[in-house]
Amino acid sequence: QVQLVESGGGLVQAGDSLRLSCAASGRTFSTYVMAWFRQAPGKEREFVAAQSRYGYTTYYADSVKGRFTISRDNAKNTVYLQMNSLKPEDTAVYYCAARVAGDTKTIPSEYHYWGQGTQVAVSS
């Protein structure tokens, strides 16, 4: 069982930055594919960013490319999402997810464990 706990959400203005953190349990964190998804009210959960096992490769949704950065600290079992130049359309609940086997995926159903989510609200 892997437990994921997100933190760092909040209310900010357009153009501001936030850094989300996700602390994971488990002794083999470096082997997990880690990802961030988000879900806005009335919308489906959508892919934001992912990092392959050991952090070799990163993937981003087109909507956040160039503004968001996913990174991980394997010594701390933590994955981060640095969000810059935030826009009102980035408003959503952000979820951390772990895929403990297989390649990097961008589909929510391919992930095995999820955090409880952290709210990000961006005002215009």
List keywords for this structure.
124 residues; mainly beta; 7-stranded mixed β-sheet; 4-stranded antiparallel β-sheet; globular
Quaternary structure annotation: single chain
Helix content range: under 10%
Termini distance? Answer: 40 Å
Mean pLDDT figure:
95
Class by alpha and beta content: mainly beta
Query: What's the total count of β strands?
Result: 11
List SSEs in N-to-C order.
EEEEEEEEEEE
Shape: globular
Largest sheet: 7 strands, mixed
Low-confidence runs of at least 5 consecutive residues = none
Strand content is over 45%
How many whole angstroms does the radius of gyration measure? Answer: 13 Å
Q: How many separate helices?
A: 0
Description of the molecule:
By secondary structure, the protein is mainly β. It is built from no helices and eleven strands. It has strands spanning 4-7, 10-13, 18-24, 33-39, 46-51, 58-60, 68-73, 78-83, 92-99, 113-114, 118-123. Strands 2, 4, 5, 6, 9, 10 and 11 form a seven-stranded mixed β-sheet that branches.
